[in-house]
Amino acid sequence: MDRVVEIEKEIKKCRELIEKKLDWVDSSKWTRREYELLIETIFNKTGTLLSLSTIRRIWNDEYKNIPHKSTLDALAITAGFLSWQNFIELTRLKHPHIQETKKNKSKNYIGAAISLLIIVISSTLYFQIFNSKTKVKITGDLKFEYSHRVESIIPNVVIFEYDVENIEADSFFIVESTHNYKKKPLKQTKGQLTSVYYHPGNYVAFLMANDSVLKKLNIEILSNDWVCMVNYRKLNHKIPFYFYKEDLIDNGKLSISRNMLINSNIRIEDDLNTTFTSTFKSETPIYRDYIFSSRIKLDSIEINSSCPGLYLGLLFEDDLCYLPLIQNGGQDKLQLKFGNTVLSSNDSDLSGLGCNIYEWQDIKVVSSQNDIKVYLNDKQTLIISDSSNMGQFKGFRFNFDGIGSIDYISLSTSSEDSIYYSSFQ
């Protein structure tokens, strides 16, 4: 069998083992969100940061060249092995190429010897094929810093300054955020790189050599106040249209109207979505102990969707939690995330998150040290067991299929200390 074809089959087997460990929805139905969660899972377990394009090519059998050794090692470790070589050895010993027969013991010994010989040859070929890249060698100090062009404004321009002259490697990259894991190649070993962050929140940027992370930076992007971003799902890599608070408050609610979109020459199409977001700094830090409540709804416009929905996002220093509401009938398409807990309609009962999305919905999230309780219209719909540390509470995000409205937002502690409140008057 051709070695490359054999490696491709081994990659497929490794993928299947990872999917079994994750126990998510079938990978043929994965969206961008699942791929990003997989990237995060692999990085947390291995320290190797794979790009979104790389992980998609591997999972969809679209790679032209066999992935690099570090990528294969990361996959094998995520699947529960020590390395890719360890994965090959153990899986082949478990499923040898030569079948044993009871009739002729000599054939058993020959078969075992051939199996072991194949493993040795394969391991040798493995290192010959994949060890072509230079290992990262650090011979001195490195520099990786950032500064804001202007703070507290969206979109926000960030300038990275780097110096990797004391690092020996084949290539260097800056990854602006774990939100998309896109690697930007550095064309020189010392200089600056300009980036733009289109959403407020907390980000982690990486300086990388080959596939290894050299240094991380925690970047906080703040907004002066509420901002609305309009985009299209099919074009969500493009720069969104921005609207600011003075244009968004009308009759005691935060919203954007159909006329505002038309007057701004924004096409109303089926994949249009709007995001309202704001960050804030609190004198009283909030971590796990909080009560969030809001009244929200989807506004009907000319989009063709049988089960539209919205996502409520809670921004933390180290994570983003999101909770969906969907039009009745679409409860089989839901996924939510709080801390390290990811639930979907395929593994949990999320039916209580369905409603008439075009009417006002009262949603409340009560978080304690060990669990999160979700209420919809004063009825408890969900209890999530999670005690992960996400850092300090930083802000809010509401994402609508089409356009939507927010009547009020309240955030307090269990002792009823008000941290944030707005009725948009």
Structural notes for this entry:
The chain has 425 residues and is of the alpha+beta class. It is 24% helix and 36% strand. The protein contains eight helices and 26 strands. Strands 12, 13, 15, 21, 22, 23, 25 and 26 form an eight-stranded antiparallel beta sheet that branches. A seven-stranded mixed beta sheet has the order 11-10-14-24-16-17-20. It has a four-stranded antiparallel beta sheet with strand order 6-5-8-9, with no helix packed on it. β18 and β19 (341-344) form a beta hairpin. The radius of gyration is 25 Å and the shape is globular. The N and C termini lie far apart (72 Å). 29% of the residues are buried. Residues 96-107 and 116-132 have low confidence and may be disordered.
